[in-house]
Specification:
The chain is α+β, with helices and mostly antiparallel strands and 396 residues long. The protein has two domains: 250 residues, 3-Layer(bba) Sandwich (FAD/NAD(P)-binding domain), CATH 3.50.50; 125 residues, Elongation Factor Tu (Ef-tu), domain 3, CATH 2.40.30.10. It is 32% helix and 21% strand. The strands form six sheets. The chain has a five-stranded parallel sheet, covered by helices on one side. Helix 1 packs parallel to helix 12. The longest helix is centred in the last third of the chain and has 23 residues. The mean pLDDT is 93.
């Protein structure tokens, strides 16, 4: 027996479940995988970036065209509330020099264990290996360990994730079951890009390129990226990846703290008998990987042009498009806000709400993804509980 159903046990789903349980509803959480929060745990392997400590106006700007729709949710649960949420689960946080907020433990697992325990105390019933297979007779059909199951709750929150990292549970299969909801095609977000490297770049694979500025269309980033045998990836690339995905060329400023005139002046110093490479190293004092990138992408017809300063300040990086969507950290696309009312309820199905990466929004890494997933989950759960409270109660 349940009053409320949540499908998906990631951050959005768990937030929705807690909100409804606190409102007095009996909640079942159905999770397709053998355990909860798998993508959440994966995100925490390199340090769980909970949120970004910055003014709400700047925080909202990271969500681009989705900012107006997300604004009420992120104003209710933004950076300050995300940090308070972690502290409420016994996980102290700290803010790094970039404004990113992390648990002191730098892991997701302690927070997730404490959260699961709190949900258990609230009576939330979490059922793993329950895979949603669509609708049946107006209810939710599942493939469960004991065979096919069906639930017909008063309200439900869908928190099934996007369409990347399928092995962790986000496979986008739900897209065929949401009826007349306005669906935008899935696209990779916060992803790497394929580069066919020349053999001389082999020595630099795995190297982080630091102290650079990246530009693609109107997008700007001051952050590092990593060279790999598959191409380029990392926070600096992710921040401009949306523009790159849409076709904007990528340019990298290898010396952003110097003006072009200052670079030109350094290069004009007497070279003597030194090779060009030795001259660049001496005058620019940069690491070998930057020189390798200049050689890789700055050559025209087999030789570097005389005008190196403009290239150093705006080196065009050739690539062959995004890595496969399943490798992306997140996805754009999903249920458009026009298919939802302002409570996140599907216009096509009363009593069914949606949250998290199922919705058509994207943002760069840096705490924005997790905070918005939690904020939309909390909003959907609270609004679902309010909707349930207005329903006529069955006679005992």
């Amino acid at each position: 027996m349940s009053d409320a159903l949540v499908i998906g046990a990631g951050p959005a789903g768990l937030m929705a479940a807690e909100a409804m349980a606190r409102a007095g509803l009996r909640v079942i959480v159905a999770e397709a995988k053998p355990s909860i929060g798998r993508k959440f745990l994966m995100a925490g392997k390199s340090g769980l970036n909970l949120t970004k400590d910055e003014p709400i106006e700047r925080f909202l700007a990271a969500y681009g065209t989705a900012a107006p729709a997300l604004a009420p949710m992120l104003q209710a649960f933004g950076p300050e509330q995300a940090a308070q949420f972690a502290r409420g689960l016994g996980q102290e946080v700290f803010t790094g020099s970039s404004g990113r907020v992390f648990p002191t433990a730098m892991k997701a697992s302690p927070l997730l264990r404490a959260w699961a325990a709190r949900l258990g105390d609230l009576g939330v019933d979490i059922r793993t290996r329950w895979r949603w297979t669509g609708w049946e007779d107006g209810g939710f059909a599942f493939a469960a360990p004991d065979g096919p199951m069906q639930l017909s709750p008063s309200v439900a929150v869908l928190a099934c994730g996007g369409a990347s990292w399928a092995r962790l549970g986000s496979d986008g299969a739900w897209a065929g079951w949401v009826g007349d909801a306005a669906l935008a095609p899935f696209r990779p977000a916060n992803m790497g890009f394929v580069v066919d490297w020349s053999p001389h770049m082999a020595a630099h694979m795995g190297t982080a390129v630091k102290g650079v500025a990246l530009r693609a269309g109107a997008a700007r980033s001051r952050g590092e990226f990593v060279l790999s045998a598959r191409g380029i990836e990392g926070g600096g690339i992710y921040a401009v990846s949306s523009a790159m995905r849409e076709g904007a060329p990528l340019f990298v400023d290898l010396l952003p703290d110097l003006t072009e005139a200052e670079v030109r002046a350094r290069l004009a110093r007497k070279q003597g008998k030194a090779s060009l490479g030795a001259h660049l190293r001496k005058q620019l004092k940069w690491p070998p990987v930057k020189q390798a990138l200049l050689m890789e992408f700055g050559r025209a017809g087999g030789a570097l042009p005389d005008g190196l300063a403009p290239l150093i300040k705006a080196l065009p990086i050739r690539h062959n498009g995004p890595r496969p969507m399943d490798e992306a950290i997140s996805t754009a696309g999903g249920i458009g806000f026009e298919g939802l009312d302002d409570t996140l309820m599907l216009r096509s199905r009363a009593g069914v709400f949606a949250a998290g990466e199922m919705l058509d929004w994207e943002a760069p890494t840096g705490g924005y993804l997790l905070t918005a997933s939690m904020a939309t989950g909390l909003w959907a759960g609270q609004k679902a509980a309010q909707y349930a409270a207005r329903l006529p109660r069955a006679e005992p």
